[in-house]
Amino acid sequence: MSTPAESRSVTSIETILADGPVVLPALLLCDFGHLADEVARLEAAGARGIHLDVMDGRFVPQLTYGMVVVEAVRRAASVPVEVHMMVDEPEQTAVSYAQAGADIVTVHIEGLPDPTATLKAIAAEGCRAHLAISPNTPVERVEPFLDDCDGILIMSVEPGFGGQSFQPSALTKLSHLRDLRHRRSLPLHLGVDGGIASSTIGSVAHAGAELIVAGSAVIRSGDYAAAIRDLESLAREQA
Ligand code: DX5
Ligand code: ZN
User: How far is the CA of 238 from the centre of ligand 2 (A)?
Assistant: First the structure.
């Protein structure tokens, strides 16, 4: 395997965010029989990053994929890759996803015994370390760790499945963190994941989301390029 520095994306997160919020398509609902083709189609359609949902069947009911698939996507993609870990004991494997060339490794605060240690271990690999927060977890839970991470991913659905409805409680969390970031001059990127569609993306962008994950709205659209373009333009109008 190549070294992390060689295998990580050549495009930085700052570069993709230069023109405003971006849509990161989630591969969860794509055709896994043609994985590399799906990544190539998404990139050709203008995807500025790819979101990968690693689920272990314990932290969430569904079992998806792990390292082998993340490595395959990393090889196929030239845009940044976010690995969203929905697993028990993420501290055991987070570093290996960073070493596999993920540009962002996102770990859930729920059940993470020592967030600072895990975030620092991810960052030590030259990878961005983000904290994710589920809908039922108060936003205050992440506040002690804002100096230790590069971003926060607000879940706007219960983690575990694509195609669920957006939960508006995410908007309050986003705007709270956006204000905190401003007051404390923190270099934090805010993300949102779940239920993003043309009817919801404007509100999350308005509340401060920049890395906006969209699964079904892109993959089930039938036209990846039109979906990404339309969603991003709605986000940028409201940012
Ligand atoms: C849900 C995942 C999401 C999912 C989003 O647990 O974390 O990334 O793929 O799918 P949509 O956009 O369909 O809600
Ligand atoms: Zn996700």
Answer: 23
Rounded to whole angstroms, how far apart are CA atoms 167 and 161?
14
Give the active site residues. 53, 193
Q: Interhelix angle for 35-44 vs 224-238, to 10°?
A: 50
- Look up the CATH number of domain 5-238: 3.20.20.70
The pTM of the whole model exceeds 0.90:
yes
First to last CA, the chain: 40
pLDDT, tens only, 71-94 = 999 999 999 999 999 999 999 999
What is the best residue among 213, 224, 228, 231 to mutate for testing ligand 1's pocket, by most ligand atoms within 8 Å of CB?
A: 213
Using most ligand atoms within 8 A of CB, pick from 164, 167, 192, 201 the residue to mutate for ligand 1. Answer: 164
Domain spans in the chain, listed from the N-terminal domain onward: 5-238
